[in-house]
Design brief:
heterotrimer; A alpha+beta (about 280); B mainly beta (about 230); C mainly alpha (about 650); A: about 280 residues; alpha+beta; Immunoglobulin-like; 2 domains; five-stranded mixed beta sheet; 8 helices; about 50% helix; C: about 650 residues; mainly alpha; Cytochrome C Oxidase, Chain A; binds copper (II) ion
């Protein structure tokens, strides 16, 4: 007799005994579903209302995507987490047993079930569907973000220990505080002079490492006036914590004025600001 | 009950032990034996039609941290003799919203700065510095010994930025402490009160980018500025 | 062999010279020879190399390599091989001496081949390492109590962040596979010892020799580069980096040796009737994690040895000006780094499945699915490494495939959850201390797992990468999941390892303090991440101050909880109630032998006739009836 046959035989034999000692709550699955629904609702509500209080103001569609992805994924994951928590919590409440001899000895045994093919398949099937959803979502967003827009302008970003400098090709302007025009896709060309840094314009919702002798690209579109933080997201030695500066998104006219104030010729400003058009 | 008392004792002993180790790490932090150098007030000054308090701060950069300054103080007792250092301390104090004139005696050798952006004075009044009394808008990018680069700690006056290059010693590669100095002078308007950090942006260290060794060791080419 | 009752071996009088050179060796001789050898290495390398371009790096590398070799020679690691080369191999008496016969507590300070001694040594080492790593964590949280904190200089802070990370990674890799895959696993499969007992002892003492270099890094300028030590920053770093690299190379040797040992033991040393299909899940977890370690850790060795040559002889693998690239380091590192996460997590998960079955008094839900799930995780985990590199600029076209493989991992991870809650479902939940940790694991690991999904998605990772969100995420998985699971394993096997019961009242107090501490500490760090605080910063914007204070307060609570747990262990180890052979009335083999476990584990070689989870099956017999199960194994309690 194979092990499985023997096991099933034993299971058949003990069924009446176990049924007697372990009254199975017929309503248990239904109750777990109720608890799951309650937990899920809590999770969804948190996902819908918390992010606005937690994330900084979004200043680009890329940042908006990151926040939206957070909300959507939380909603997608909420039922899964809720179900696991519900089963664990319900089991503890319904089937908690004190053992004999002041809990020194174990309680009587539980149901001798070795699993259920149906439940396992359902579980795996559901997670495959969820994973496919996550993947399609991610790929769709990614391809939208990497699409080149017609009004893009180039900004060269240089990381070095422990400073950021930004230059606007063709204008001869270099600055420590990043100034960007509104409503443009900004193509950041990021490099480093020494070790690896992480270029992270926080409220723009993108980041890319600055590597020596390589130019990395990342794009973000400015869609709001105001200031944002630029931090280094890759530990880079002694003053890593201080490797940050401010960025500002200004109107196109203000941007041109500012470039001129930094000594850029009007023709270079013209060709630079029009470069993407 | 007794066991719980002992459990609490364990926590307390652990906390004391950790605190002791913490103090050890705290002491490992370099603080100059010469304390904080406070800028001296020299009266009032008008810049762009506004009245400011005017203070003067003295800086020195020397080729050897184990050497002495002109008044005979050893810069970094026990420091690495082949490392350059700001002298005699690395902690400075200036008042907020004041005009600060820095008189910087630069005695070290140098070479090419990594990023030519730092070959020009940034954030000084008039965008200039004076080298031995002569006003200039920059130092040749291959003639720089150190820079004095200052900014606020995270969140402290985030737009404040100051960076000034110092030319190499008159003795060139044979630089010696307190010989062949270049006097660099510049003024800037200090920002809001708070703790600021300064460092050098010239690659005066070793290894990748010239930022290893002395540049990565707090206290030689880096320090704090207290703006009060 | 089976004619001698192994129990008697412990009382056997050995010949006066049994063990040969081993008789004169212990931890102290290890230290002395190690320091002496390091000193000679220092003097010689200093004389030869000082003044050359790479002088101090070479000196540190040579000195510490000599320390590692010297320490192990002093311990006795190389004795057997030298005797074999010299033609007088060890005889049976020598082997018995090496296994610790007749040495009492002193064997814990020696090169001891008994797997139970090695397991116990590992347990103590893991506690010490967590103590050191935890202390460093307190330094970090103290520095971050306020913005513009000057508790430590940024240099010291960076060094502490790096060493905290690496010490904790070392500790978590060995926290279950060290103590329990060594002490318990061989008994679980009915083996007399590990397949290679001398390699087993070696794996332990090699880790011990790896610890002083990494702590020494604080006196060599400090490692400024985080535990990941990305190049070229790590090429630029002070000589502390050489010490760090030596520690890694040494540690990798230990993990590799231990992994091979585990695999061979399970494949060749199982008792009669212990088919692969009857292996407890913990044993499956141990061999899968061991095998995965064999794949992963050599990549770390490569990454760090290339780093050493870059630093010491200027090879330039990672230096852009010499044609190298930091991406090479990052790839090699994460080819180790992601599988390593599962080398850490799979053994505690296996232990928790044992706990689930024992304390729900139910067979494991879906035994085969669970084994397939763990294997699936291990297989997928070698194909996901570049999700750590989404924002590095390396191969942006590979974002989609790596997103796919990473998100696929949530399927086998889901299976683990299914098997855990499926085992609990309709069980008789016996709320003893180990079960608490299973519940805490489920709670934390769901959070750790779900927050991982955001990081697997490139557009969201563009925000969360390099941010405190990541820090909170992996602490939820490695501490909230892995370490909590390991604490459960300690509580579960404590009676077998120490012959005493763990005091559950103190243990439960510790449990609640730890559980609450974890939530406060890392929920606050998630919040910092949302707000946009970068990782590994010595200093931060005042915007983040509230979350940081909450996180620090939580960390202090967590530390207090850990200290109480440590007290529970130490107190119970010394004064706890004597444990019976099978206090949990469990059905796997380790509970079918005496406590304390005799030298070769079983009085009579066990014959296995069933699976180890026969709860609710009155006729289920895990072992053949002829095996004399210790009386107390069935009655429980020491009366
Ligand atoms: Cu950086
Ligand atoms: Cu300098
Ligand atoms: Cu990973």
């Amino acid at each position: 007799m194979s092990y499985e046959e023997k096991r099933d035989e034993i299971a058949e034999e003990v069924k009446p005994i176990v049924a007697h000692t372990m009254p199975f709550h017929k309503k248990a699955p239904a109750k777990v579903v109720y608890i799951t629904i309650v937990f899920t609702i809590i999770g969804v509500l948190l996902a819908l209302f918390l992010p606005t209080h937690m994330f900084p103001f979004s200043m680009s569609p890329e940042m908006h995507d990151a926040v939206l992805t957070f909300v959507v994924f939380t909603i997608a994951a909420a039922p899964v987490a809720a179900l696991v928590y519900a089963i664990a919590a319900y089991s503890l409440i319904a089937w908690r047993k004190k053992g004999a001899n002041n809990n020194e000895e174990p309680p009587e045994d539980g149901a001798p079930s070795h699993g259920s093919g149906l439940i396992t398949s359902l579980w795996i099937g559901t997670s495959v569907v969820l994973v496919l959803f996550l993947l399609v979502w991610g790929m769709a967003e990614l391809s939208a973000e990497t699409a080149q827009q017609s009004n893009a302008i180039q900004v060269n970003v240089t990381g070095q220990q422990w400073m950021w400098t930004f230059s606007y090709p063709g204008t001869g302007v270099t600055t420590h505080n990043l100034i960007l025009p509104e409503g443009r896709q900004i193509d950041f060309n990021v490099t480093s002079m020494d070790v690896t840094h992480g270029f992270w314009p926080v409220e723009m919702g993108v980041q890319i490492d600055a590597n020596p002798n390589v130019i990395d690209h990342i794009a973000a579109t400015t869609n709001r006036l105001g200031s944002f933080d630029v931090r280094c997201s890759q530990i880079c030695g002694l003053y890593h914590a201080y490797m940050q500066t401010k960025g500002t998104v200004v109107t196109n006219a203000q941007f041109a004025t500012w470039l001129a104030s930094q000594g850029a010729s009007s023709s270079s400003i013209q060709s630079y600001a029009l470069s993407g058009k | 009950m007794k066991k719980f008392v002992w459990a609490v004792v364990t926590v307390l002993v652990g906390a004391v032990l950790i605190a002791a180790i913490g103090l050890g790490f705290h002491d490992q932090q370099y603080s100059s034996p010469y304390g904080t150098e406070v800028a001296k007030s020299v009266g009032m000054i008008t810049v762009n039609g506004k009245q400011y308090q005017h203070v003067v701060l003295n800086l020195v950069t020397e080729p050897s941290a184990q050497g002495t300054t002109s008044n005979g103080q050893i810069i970094h007792p026990g420091g690495n003799p082949s490392w350059p250092a700001y002298a005699v301390t690395n902690e400075y104090q200036i008042p907020a919203n004041a005009v600060v004139t820095v008189k910087w005696s630069q005695y070290d050798s140098g070479g090419v700065v990594n990023n030519p952006y730092f070959a020009k004075p940034r954030g000084t009044i008039g965008g200039i510095e004076r080298v031995n009394g002569k006003p200039v808008t920059g130092v040749a990018a291959d003639n720089i010994a150190h820079t004095f680069t200052l900014r606020g700690e995270p969140g402290v006056d985030p737009r404040f930025f100051l960076s000034v290059p110092g030319p190499i010693s008159k003795l060139g590669d044979n630089a010696e402490n307190n010989k062949g100095g270049q006097l660099v002078q510049f003024s800037f308007i200090s920002g809001k009160p708070g703790l600021y950090v300064w460092n050098c942006e010239f690659p005066c260290g070793l290894s990748v980018g010239g930022f290893g060794a002395v540049m990565s060791s707090y206290g030689y080419m880096s320090g704090h500025m207290h703006v009060v | 062999m089976s004619t001698i009752a192994p129990m008697l071996l412990e009382d056997t009088k050995l010949e006066p010279k049994a063990g040969g050179f081993y008789r004169h060796q212990n931890f102290l001789t290890g230290l002395i020879v190690g320091i002496l050898s390091g000193f000679i290495g220092w003097v010689v390398s200093l004389a030869l190399l000082q003044g050359s371009n790479f002088g101090s790096d070479m000196v540190v590398t040579v000195t510490l390599t000599c320390w590692v070799i010297g320490f192990n020679a002093g311990m006795g690691t190389f004795n057997a091989i030298f005797r074999w080369i010299l033609g007088h191999d060890q005889n049976h008496e020598d082997e018995l001496y090496a296994a610790g016969v007749g040495q009492g507590w002193k064997r814990y300070w020696k090169y001891c081949t008994d797997h139970k001694v090695v397991g116990t040594q590992y347990l103590v080492l893991v506690m010490v390492l967590f103590g050191v790593g935890g202390t460093l964590a307190m330094m970090i949280r103290t520095q971050l109590l306020s913005p513009n904190s000057r508790f430590m200089s940024p240099e010291t802070y960076n060094a502490i962040v790096s060493i905290h990370g690496m010490i904790m990674i070392i500790a978590t890799i060995i926290m279950v596979s060290g103590p329990f895959a060594n002490f318990i696993m061989p008994i679980m499969i009915g083996a007399k010892d590990m397949a290679f007992p001398r390699l087993n002892a070696m794996s332990f003492w090699v880790v011990v020799s790896a610890v002083p270099p990494i702590l020494g890094s604080f006196f060599l300028g400090g490692v400024p580069a985080g535990w990941t030590t990305y190049a070229p920053l790590s090429v630029q770093a002070p000589p502390a980096m050489d010490a760090f690299a030596i520690t890694i190379c040494t540690f990798v040797i230990s993990v590799t040796v231990a992994g091979i040992n585990t695999l061979v033991t399970v494949l060749t040393m199982r008792a009669k009737g212990m088919t692969m299909g009857r292996l407890p899940i913990f044993v499956w977890g141990s061999i899968i994690a061991g095998g995965l370690g064999l794949y992963a850790m050599p990549a770390f060795l490569m990454a760090q040895s290339a780093l050493i040559t870059d630093r010491v002889v200027g090879t330039g693998f990672y230096v852009a000006e010499q044609g190298g690239t930091g991406w090479l380091y990052e790839n090699t590192f994460w080819i180790m780094g992601h599988p390593e996460v599962y080398v850490i997590l799979i053994p505690p998960v296996g232990a928790l499945i044992e706990i689930a079955s024992t304390f729900a008094r139910k067979p494991v839900f879906g035994y085969k699915v669970m084994v397939a799930g763990i294997s699936g995780i291990a297989t997928l985990s070698i194909m996901v490494w570049a999700h750590h590199m989404f924002t590095t600029g390396w191969a942006p076209t590979l974002a989609d495939p790596f997103m796919l493989t990473t998100e696929l991992i949530s399927i086998p991870t889901g299976i683990i959850f299914l098997c855990m809650v499926g085992t609990i479902w309709r069980g008789s939940i016996w709320t003893r201390l180990p079960m608490y940790f299973l519940y805490l694991f489920i709670f934390n690991f769901i959070i750790g797992g779900i927050t991982g999904i955001y990081l697997s998605d490139v557009p969201a990772d563009q925000y969360f990468h390099g941010n405190m969100f990541v820090t909170a995420h992996f602490h939820y998985t490695l501490l909230g999941g892995g370490l909590v699971g390991a604490m459960g394993a300690v509580c579960y096997w404590f009676p077998k390892v120490t012959s005493r019961m763990l005091n559950e009242r103190i243990g439960k107090t510790a449990f609640w303090v730890v559980a609450i501490g974890i939530q406060i500490t890392y929920m606050a760090q998630f919040y910092e991440g949302f707000q946009g605080m970068a990782r590994r910063v010595a200093n931060y914007n005042a915007l983040f101050v509230d979350a940081n204070r909450v996180s620090s307060a939580g960390a202090y609570i967590l530390m207090a909880g850990m200290l109480i747990f440590m007290y529970a262990i130490i107190h119970s180890w010394r004064h706890g109630k004597k444990a019976s052979a099978n206090p949990w009335h469990a059905k796997s083999l380790e509970w079918m032998t005496l406590t304390p476990v005799p030298l070769e584990n079983f009085l009579v070689d066990p014959v296995v006739t069933g699976h180890p989870y026969g709860y609710g099956e009155p006729d289920s017999k895990p072992v053949a009836p002829e095996m004399p199960v210790p009386v107390s194994a069935n009655s429980g309690g020491s009366h």
